[in-house]
Amino acid sequence: MDDRRETVRLLEPDGAVVAGVELPAAERILEGYRALVRARRLNEQAGALVRQGRLAVYPSSRGQEACQVAAAMVLSDADWLFPTYRDTAAIVARGVDPVEVLTMLRGDRHCGYDVAAHRVAPQATPLATQLLHAVGVAHAARLKNEPSVVLALCGDGATSEGDFHEALNFAAVFRAPVVFLVQNNKYAISVPLAQQCVAASLADKAIGYGMPGVRVDGNDLAALLTVLDEAVDRAGAGDGPTLVEADTYRIEAHTNADDAGRYRDEAEVAGWLDRDPLRRVHAWLCAAGHLDATAERELADDAERMAAALRTGIAEETPVDPDELFAHVYADPTPQLREQRDLLRTELEATP
């Protein structure tokens, strides 16, 4: 892909500040680093839970944690987050209990957390469908004069879906207060970006919808905060949507069911390891005197407490009520549904 659009970057991969730029406040970057440490530990622990059979599947966001954390940090309590299946770390950074977030991935029938209380939509597995929902919520907020902005996450594969077009077109026409954050991690499962799009950049797609398109280094937390802050402020001021493309990389396989070695080589992965988002922020914080060994231990201990609580919570068996199979099909159960329910009850009562 011929990438001609400028990529916004504030910190170089080695943590050096790009000449002539202004960083967000150090306290905010330190807050983001804490969330990054927790996000990395979450990915590690969730992967272990899959191998132990505690989770059915887990799509890791290792390498993309800066996108996840920034997406949560730029939102106020009144705003909404619409995540995909890979955005577990973003939901946790938004303040949702990790055990509740992973409930769906252990095979439960629901998403595990209170959507309305947290203003976080359920994680969407079908590509791009959540973008339409996000635009609907944003449009409704605008009609009701509510001060809400919606941030919708998706991957590069989702930009090839019809729902992506419909969502951006509607949002632009009706100036919905929504920000679209595309985490371009280079692969739609095994399909490389070059085989699904020949645009100079995914951010260039914004031109066709008459909205701003920004490309940002997705492994640079400082740059992400700056770009997303501006997009959220723009949406909240009534100036309509923005498309943000975050240039990042999926370090681990698509899920635990995927063999990434079949479609990419280790040299490619190694090159992106050198651009690790945690190491980049860590290097700047240490060089600027905002992080010492004591603070690092405290952050690591905090992340480990989260991981321990996650292990304990996921190990607890969820009580099963067979009647729930019939409780939410119709508001008023049909005669056939009641008959099936009664038959199951009879069979269960007869089971030793």
From TrEMBL:
Domain of life of the source: Bacteria
Pfam families found in the cross-reference section: E1_dh
Cofactor annotation: thiamine diphosphate
Function statement: The branched-chain alpha-keto dehydrogenase complex catalyzes the overall conversion of alpha-keto acids to acyl-CoA and CO(2). It contains multiple copies of three enzymatic components: branched-chain alpha-keto acid decarboxylase (E1), lipoamide acyltransferase (E2) and lipoamide dehydrogenase (E3).
Protein name per the record: 2-oxoisovalerate dehydrogenase subunit alpha
Start and end residues of each Dehydrogenase E1 component domain: 39-304
E.C. no: 1.2.4.4
Taxonomic source organism: Pseudonocardia parietis
The entry's keywords: Oxidoreductase, Pyruvate, Thiamine pyrophosphate
Stated family: Belongs to the BCKDHA family.
Keyword Transport carried by entry: no
GO molecular function: pyruvate dehydrogenase (acetyl-transferring) activity
Catalytic activity: N(6)-[(R)-lipoyl]-L-lysyl-[protein] + 3-methyl-2-oxobutanoate + H(+) = N(6)-[(R)-S(8)-2-methylpropanoyldihydrolipoyl]-L-lysyl-[protein] + CO2
